[in-house]
Amino acid sequence: MLYKFKSRATADLIMLDAQGRRLLKIMGKEPTAQGIVTAAQIPFAIAAIEAAVAAEKRGAAPAGDVDETAGAPEEGGDAQDRVTLRQRAAPFLDMLRRSAAEEADVVWGT
């Protein structure tokens, strides 16, 4: 399943199920088939994602904030090959910031 995030302030953003669910949970949203982050909720959503990114960087991911797809590195790879939350969240944070600037909601669907 894919999550498609939309805002009138930006182009659409498509994420795979695991990453979309993870970001929604971090923001305190239920990972349902459809939903909305209102313009008023965006500052909290940005702060929550940035806090999770900082926690991951410190090596102390909060409970419930584990990326199921980021298991052990494949044979011949190393931990640096892993895609971090910061990298996955960057386009979504950009969408949220642009939407906040234009006071636009962000909606999602599957």
Tell me what the structure shows.
With 110 residues, the protein is an alpha+beta fold. The chain has one domain (2-61, 85-109). Helix content is 40%, strand content 19%. The protein contains 3 helices and 4 strands. Strands 2-1-4-3 form a 4-stranded antiparallel beta sheet. The longest helix is centred in the middle third of the chain and has 17 residues, at 42-58. The model is unreliable at 70-74 (pLDDT under 50).
Chain-wise SSE layout:
Elements: E1 2-7, E2 10-16, H1 17-26, E3 34-37, H2 42-58, H3 85-101, E4 106-109
Antiparallel strand pairs: 1-2, 1-4, 3-4
Low-pLDDT parts are: 70-74
Sheet with most strands: strand arrangement: 2-1-4-3
Q: Specify the overall morphology.
A: globular
**What class do helices, strands and sheet pairing give?**
alpha+beta
Beta strands, count: 4
Distance between the termini: 7 Å
Output the helix-strand order.
EEHEHHE
Strand content: 15-25%
Total of helices = 3
Offer a concise description of the structure.
With about 110 residues, this protein is of the alpha+beta class.
List keywords for this structure.
globular, four-stranded antiparallel sheet, alpha+beta, single chain
